[in-house]
Amino acid sequence: MTAAETPAPVLGQARATGIVAAGMMGMNVLTYAFSLLCARMLGPRDFGALTALLGVMIVANVAALALQATAARRLATTSPEHRDAVAHDVIRNGWRVAVALAVLLLATAPLLDRLLHLDDWVTACAPAVVMAPLTLMGAYAGLLQGGRRWGPLALVYASMGGGRVVAGAAAVLIQPSLRAAMVGIAVGAFAPALVGALACRVTGAREPHVDHQPVLRELWTNGHTLLALFAFTNLDVLLARHLLDEHQAGIYAAGAILAKACLFLPTFVLVVAFPTMASERGGRPWLRPLLAVGFLGVLAVLGALVLPGLAVAFAGGSAYADLGDVAWLFAAEGTMFAGLQILVYDTIAAQSHSGFLLWVGALVVLVVALVVVDSVLALVTLVALVGLGVGLVTGLMPGASDPD
Questions:
Q1: In terms of residue numbers, what domain contains 261?
Q2: What pTM does this model have?
Q3: pLDDT tens digit string along 129-165?
Q4: Residue 52: what are its φ and ψ, rounded to 5°?
Q5: CA-CA distances (angstroms) from residue 339 to 120, 158, 279, 384, 392?
């Protein structure tokens, strides 16, 4: 088949992937730049605490991701005459969830302060301020994703990284402290919410006779599944902060940068594939994105294995030299996380959730870590092996790939 004969849907998919990849690459590069700046300016102790707080926020971000997945799936599978009603419902509930989550995080701030040894109430309260606008961003991003509006969606993603690096870097450069970093992150979090609101400002007239309860139920079940996923993928950073000494926890935090890069950098594949995974349930819609993510992950693992010095430089510099010997393991862990994410989103697309497997995996990691883990190597190996097992079981479950 010649280029001229290439089917339009294939070209459209490639174009969409390129647009979203550009936006997400911009977000990830800018976010990485901020993390790298913090790693160098704050040092292992404060950077370890910052990474732990970011881990908490990633888990809290499940609300935004549930809103996004719910909106995207429903818009991709709903007839056009009902899409405006879904959009109104998502935005309205997005505001409710954002406020509720902020209140919850404020209530848990004293616990964060104690568990993470922060000794700073401003820093402990900052996640509440960060997550309110980011939750709204999830609602808007889902509407854009489900409507296949890839250009505005890419701008939302890019503005997230841009807001963080501009406000966060300014704060850290003015005063290199954990508190300054969190204040900067909080200010920057409003940028993507504003861009998303502008992109979705016209959603049509509300349809009061449409039953919106299915949206709420789906939001709840999606949230449970994604909470399990992100609890599992961030538990290790919290355990490192709690179980290891400050230096080792800092090394683990730097390794987590590699793992999260391998998890998040190929997310553009999932973003573009998800509406199709939801609307076309025949066969195994998860296979192609899983293979694409796996291929990228293998390249990352080989790169970290062959060039550990480059991996250390990527993660934070010479202060984290001890990371070199295990850098490839963090890349493998991140690749495992990325594959697991594809499989979990496929269960969401099929509305056949298997979040309980992730909770079981998290419980296994927690119990084993508390009993035997005493090093960076032991913890990253434990998480990678347990995650691989959870992924294999999830992929083999019939509900993960069967059509509705």
A1: 225-404
A2: 0.79
A3: 999 999 999 999 999 998 889 999 999 999 999 999 9
A4: -65, -40
A5: 37, 23, 21, 12, 10
